[in-house]
């Protein structure tokens, strides 16, 4: 990590400083301590021509006349009336253009402040001063601040924090980690630097999948505590009492805080910029102040305060899910014994707020407090929602041994949901549901069982059966909300596979509405959203995909499960739209944040790895695609049925980037055959289109049949694409390219345009080449695009042989892969060299890699 951190996100301030120096001969930079005023002044000075005099005022020098300017008083004479002018002459030292930079001008002694004021009045040079917010100013400095433009230096934004840490560490900082760094530091560059240094040293900020991820919260180092305490200063006991209340509950309601301290103490703390009061809530001015007090205050003292605050919140504040969770969290770490029933209520409230890990902690506390089977069932449920499926299944199995029929049926429903959703074992879930079917029917849970069973059918690759079961179940009354959400997932997944996109979007809308009103179903909206995106993409109705992905991102909270799932959704949405650089970023984030899961719970990680492999292959990154593919767990559980086509298409793209066009086509056609066997026409359509992008022409007839089955524009475009390719019709290939571009499938548009090039001439060919280059601007380097380099010169088989040679394969290995003789391979290479005017295999590879063959 570099010792000197760069300046980022400050271009606006630098422009304002330059303008102020030009128009007014000076500027005053204001802001809280640590935001980077001094660094900004340094950078502004470096950009200005001329001599710079840097003056650093200090608290110790404030009591000494001319203390800040002591280095310029050596040649001063005995006459005190001339001293100010003599110091100004020393600062100028005969130079025509001098910039005087005064850091922490609020700490200047009176005489030094007078020198600076006279320096400006005489237009002896330009001045840049930094002043800390909330500090009293010497009269001369105050006069200057009134005269010169004041430029507020705000803390870094979340984006600025992410950009700064990314530049320092040399790899992207994961998005939610950037958000949490911002939350802890409030964009204070000084605190950020120390916190990043400390967290790397502690092993909590680590690089995974080429992304830096922070597994906070922090534990403050002595260095950071010293920085914070210097900023907080020594405070009277009343303010310490207020800070300690906020250390256990930030924010806290004003009526609650007034039970601990008087209003005068609150006013004093606000004047010292230690707290803020807005709309009846009191907050720490900086969240790390609370960390300092938690480190300094005694454990017993804080436990007592937590119990008092929890009781006062219950007495003085309106009840809500948030208040219930706040009270429970405070009680867990207080001297007050928690009530099991209240802790279970709080766990459900935390689930409503999508804080899944906290919900599990609260349920665990309820069990420890003697909550019995109700608390144990709540804990098993929360563990499942938090991604700890193995532990949850063990608890559900034990609970299933007791209770009455209704309780056993409810437990079986929850256990089956966990088996299917978290452990990726819908087959096992079906077994559990079937075993408890009679009990479910006897207590009115039959439709709920059917809705959940429908999701298992869909996951196992039976879309039509799943749609029929879910439709029947969801028309019944009193379906359990969790089961109903699984039913909507089955509908969205099944209808998307069948190509019924209109009904699919209706089912998705109903599912989102349920997720907004049923806490136990809220977290399932992410799986619902992913399958809606898949269905929209397969149909070619992609215009809604970015909105769905971004909405889900906004709705997710900072917990590991949702971070990883949201990132994979965003990454796949970008991949669907051909924005490959952004897709790589989000998919790497998903891998990095999901790496805490083992293979058993790793379907999300598998999706991220699979789609990142595909993305890298589309970008022509053979090494990256190989590495990512090799690091995959290859564990989808029973969900391998619905992701089988994507798995085969990933292999197809790996073959394509490896240079084996014929094997890529074979894998894509095989994926289409699998989808057809499963009765999933929309998936089959996507596979056949991909084969066409690789150059297959045998897809025309089946694409024509699918166009009558699958809704949306993709079917017609893919048929037009395949027909034009078979007929070598460049104009129709360009038409297909334009159609793909309209629906947002940039990679397919690129391939169709590139495939048009050899079948066009003159201006039309140049236009097709320009179109392909424009569509490849985000990094796509597909086989069709790379083949443009040898258009009209090499045959497809010659290009394939050269591409394989470029990966390092010997002639024998190429022959084995393409099922031909070594002599035939040698012949292809020899004739390619003749056509391109080169003499060696290496020259041939280099020529095509550079794209200079034409």
Automatic annotation (TrEMBL):
Q: Which Pfam families match?
A: GerE
Annotated GO biological processes are:
regulation of DNA-templated transcription
* Start and end residues of each HTH luxR-type domain: 787-852
InterPro entries in the record:
AAA+_ATPase, P-loop_NTPase, Sig_transdc_resp-reg_C-effctor, Tscrpt_reg_LuxR_C, WH-like_DNA-bd_sf
Q: Which GO molecular-function terms appear in the entry? A: DNA binding
Which PROSITE patterns does its entry note?
HTH_LUXR_1 (PS00622), HTH_LUXR_2 (PS50043)
Q: Which SUPFAM superfamilies match?
A: C-terminal effector domain of the bipartite response regulators, P-loop containing nucleoside triphosphate hydrolases
Q: Which UniProt keywords apply?
A: DNA-binding, Transcription, Transcription regulation
Q: Which residues form a coiled coil?
A: none
Enumerate the PANTHER family for this protein.
DNA-BINDING TRANSCRIPTIONAL ACTIVATOR DEVR_DOSR
Its name, as the record gives it, is HTH luxR-type domain-containing protein
Lineage summary: Bacteria, Bacillati, Actinomycetota, Actinomycetes, Mycobacteriales
């Amino acid at each position: 990590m570099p010792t000197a951190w760069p300046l980022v996100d400050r271009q606006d301030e630098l422009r304002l400083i330059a303008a102020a120096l030009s128009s007014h001969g000076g500027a005053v930079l204001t802001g809280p301590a640590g935001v980077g005023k001094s660094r900004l002044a340094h950078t502004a000075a470096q950009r200005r021509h001329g001599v710079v005099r840097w003056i650093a005022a200090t608290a110790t020098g404030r009591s000494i006349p001319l203390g800040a300017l002591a280095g310029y008083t050596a040649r001063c004479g005995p006459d005190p009336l001339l001293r100010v002018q003599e110091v100004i002459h020393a600062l100028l030292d005969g130079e025509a253009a001098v910039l005087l930079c005064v850091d922490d001008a609020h700490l200047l002694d009176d005489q030094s402040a007078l020198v600076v004021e006279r320096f400006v009045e005489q237009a002896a040079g330009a001045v840049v001063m930094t002043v800390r917010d909330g500090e009293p100013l010497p009269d001369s400095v105050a006069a200057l601040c009134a005269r010169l433009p004041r430029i507020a230096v705000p803390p870094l934004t979340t984006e600025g924090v992410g950009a700064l840490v990314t530049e320092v560490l040399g790899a992207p900082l994961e998005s939610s980690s950037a958000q949490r760094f911002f939350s802890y530091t409030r964009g204070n560059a000084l605190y950020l630097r120390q916190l990043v240094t400390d967290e790397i040293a502690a092993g909590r900020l680590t690089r995974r999948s080429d992304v830096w991820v922070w597994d906070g919260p922090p534990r403050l180092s002595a260095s950071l505590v010293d920085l914070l305490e210097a900023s907080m200063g020594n405070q009277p006991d009343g303010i310490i009492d207020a800070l300690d209340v906020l250390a256990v509950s930030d924010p806290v309601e004003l009526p609650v805080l007034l039970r601990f301290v008087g209003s005068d103490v609150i006013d004093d703390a606000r004047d010292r910029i230690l707290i803020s009061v807005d709309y009846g809530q009191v907050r720490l001015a900086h969240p790390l102040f609370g960390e300092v007090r938690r480190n300094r205050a005694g454990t017993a003292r804080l436990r007592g305060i937590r119990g008092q605050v929890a009781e006062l919140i219950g007495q003085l504040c309106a009840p809500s899910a948030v208040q219930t969770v706040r009270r429970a969290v405070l009680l867990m770490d207080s001297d007050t014994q928690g009530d099991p029933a209240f802790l279970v209520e709080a766990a459900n409230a935390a689930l409503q707020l999508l804080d899944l890990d906290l919900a599990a902690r609260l349920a665990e506390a309820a069990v420890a407090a003697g909550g019995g089977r109700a608390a144990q069932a709540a804990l098993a449920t929360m563990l499942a929602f938090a991604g700890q499926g193995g532990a949850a299944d063990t608890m559900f199995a034990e609970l299933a041994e007791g209770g009455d029929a209704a309780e056993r049926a409810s437990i079986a429903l929850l256990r089956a949901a966990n088996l299917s959703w978290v452990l990726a074992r819908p087959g096992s879930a079906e077994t559990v549901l079937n075993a408890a079917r009679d009990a479910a029917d006897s207590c009115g849970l039959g439709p709920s069982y059917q809705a959940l069973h429908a999701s298992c059918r869909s996951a196992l690759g039976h879309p039509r059966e799943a749609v029929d079961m879910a439709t029947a179940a969801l028309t019944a009354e009193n379906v359990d909300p969790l089961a109903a959400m699984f039913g909507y997932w089955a509908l969205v997944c099944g209808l998307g596979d069948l190509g019924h996109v209109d009904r699919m979007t209706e089912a998705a809308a109903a599912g989102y509405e349920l997720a907004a009103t049923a806490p136990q179903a809220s977290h399932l909206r992410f799986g619902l959203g992913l399958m809606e995106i898949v269905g929209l993409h397969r149909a070619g109705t992609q215009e809604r995909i970015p909105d769905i992905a971004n909405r889900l991102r906004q709705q997710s909270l900072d917990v590991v499960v949702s971070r990883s799932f949201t990132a994979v959704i965003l990454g796949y949405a970008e991949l669907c739209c051909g924005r490959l650089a952004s897709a790589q970023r989000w998919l790497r984030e998903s891998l990095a944040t999901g790496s805490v899961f083992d293979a058993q719970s790793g379907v999300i990680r598998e999706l991220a790895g699979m789609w990142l492999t595909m993305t890298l292959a589309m970008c022509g990154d053979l090494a990256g695609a190989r590495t990512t593919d090799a690091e995959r767990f290859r564990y989808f559980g029973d969900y391998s049925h619905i992701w089988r086509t994507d798995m085969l298409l990933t292999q197809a793209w790996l073959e394509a980037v490896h240079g084996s066009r014929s094997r890529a086509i074979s894998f894509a056609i095989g994926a289409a055959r699998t989808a057809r066997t499963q009765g999933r026409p929309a998936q089959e359509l996507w596979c056949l289109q991909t084969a066409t992008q690789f150059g297959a022409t045998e897809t025309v007839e089946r694409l024509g049949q699918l166009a009558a089955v699958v809704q949306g524009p993709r079917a017609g475009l893919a048929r037009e694409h395949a027909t034009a390719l078979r007929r070598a019709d460049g104009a129709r290939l360009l038409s297909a390219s334009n159609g793909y571009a309209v629906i947002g499938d940039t990679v397919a548009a690129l391939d169709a345009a590139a495939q048009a090039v050899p079948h066009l001439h003159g201006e039309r060919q140049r236009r097709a080449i320009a179109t392909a280059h424009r569509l490849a601007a985000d990094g796509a380097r597909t086989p069709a695009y790379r083949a443009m380099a040898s258009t009209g010169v090499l045959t497809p088989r010659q290009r394939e042989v050269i591409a394989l040679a470029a990966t390092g394969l010997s002639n024998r290995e190429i022959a084995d892969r393409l099922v031909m003789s070594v002599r035939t391979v040698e012949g292809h290479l020899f004739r390619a060299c003749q056509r391109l005017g080169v003499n060696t295999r290496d020259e041939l590879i280099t020529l095509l890699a550079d794209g200079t063959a034409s």
